[in-house]
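Q: My labmate handed me this sequence with no annotations at all. I'd like to see what the chain might look like in three dimensions before we decide whether it's worth expressing. Could you predict it?
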Amino acid sequence: MGNEMLGCVVLAAGESTRMKSAVSKALHTLCGAPLLARVLRTLRELAPSRLVVVVGPDADEVEGLARAQGAATCVQQERLGTGHATLQAEDALEGFEGVVLLTCVDVPLLRVETLRALIARHRDRAAAATLLSAQYDDPTGYGRVVRGSDGSVRAIVEQRDANNETHRIREINSSVYCFDSRLLFQFARQVGASAATGEQYLTDVIGLMVSRGERVEAMMVGDPAEIAGINNRVQLAEAERVLRDRVRERLMLAGVTLVDPATIYIDEDVEIGRDTTVWPCSFIRGKCVIGTGCEIGPHVTIEECEVGDRVRVIHGSFVRASRIGDEVSIGPFAHVRADSDIGPRARVGSHVELKAARIGGGTKASHFAYLGDVRIGPGSNIGAGTVTCNYDGVRKHQTIIEDGAFIGSNASLVAPVTIGAGAYVAAGSTITQDVPSGALAVGRGKQRNIEGWASRKGKRTED
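A: Here is what I predict for the chain of 463 residues:
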């Protein structure tokens, strides 16, 4: 059930000019997810009854992402400041009464625990507004939070407007707020445009509330990194470092061994079981679930996979969008492409490539093979150099290798073709017809030895 007393608004209408990108800032990725998706995921953990994203004009992709994440959207047709952007959410919050939590798409490191504490502080103090602040050793460039003797906020003073005394204040405004919904839009409509820029600012809403005698509170965040904003790619990289550190710490505290953690890149949606070891220079991306007692790496990439227990994926292997059963061994230098399913105790060895392959339990393809669009039963053996010839230039075709079959080295299986259970394919064969169960298929020309050919060839070369 949603929190009927909480609405959340995300401002995501900025032009992102400092990112120097044709891609909206909201769509730049952080630890495997777009910034907007990250922010919305955190907010959804609060179970708000309303979730609204303010987007800019011609932002169809941003709008689509917001809706896919369960948020309503509204458009700020003219970019006239944060105060003006906030007003665009008024219709989407029509009829709502309670606390409005307002944040920005470029503040993606907030923890849900921090937001819960901010909301609780706002409610406990019965404030008109409560802002999230932080203390910086060097607050240059940030708006300073000026407090009264009772701890309430008296003003937010921007850097350009601060006098010497205000410059010495180290508490800064994060642009994350809780508002009483009855007062937010009432005061936002009264804010005038800046003479210098023609824009309306949300900080002026705070100033107006204070001047009218409304109580404004501030809660200082414990970790200033949480409110770090992202305006350029340098700050995006720093946020990536912070978030990846969190992910690695979470996993290590849960019983995962990361050998040289700083060299290991793990996305936020990854789950790894205890007693799994990840070696250096490995990448685990997207939504992955990896079981217990596994060994991953070094130099391994795993993307969007479900990996069982006691699995080894080693030395330069790449595995994507596949399911790996218990006690499977992959690598070194194996390539498991999307939509593959490897059964328990199977082996996919050195320089073996799978594509849309179903590999039965205990089957071995130990080295140098291409197995595409194939179904292989359990207990089979695939020799070195085996190729399933699955493409005729127009369409893909399937190869079926039934239980316990033995495919000799350097065999070409021209699909569509079926190798029966327990059948053998002789080394070097090209198989174009089905092989019955238990049969031996030999698809190669008869060997012919020409005596003395080498010496005669040598004599011709001399002449």
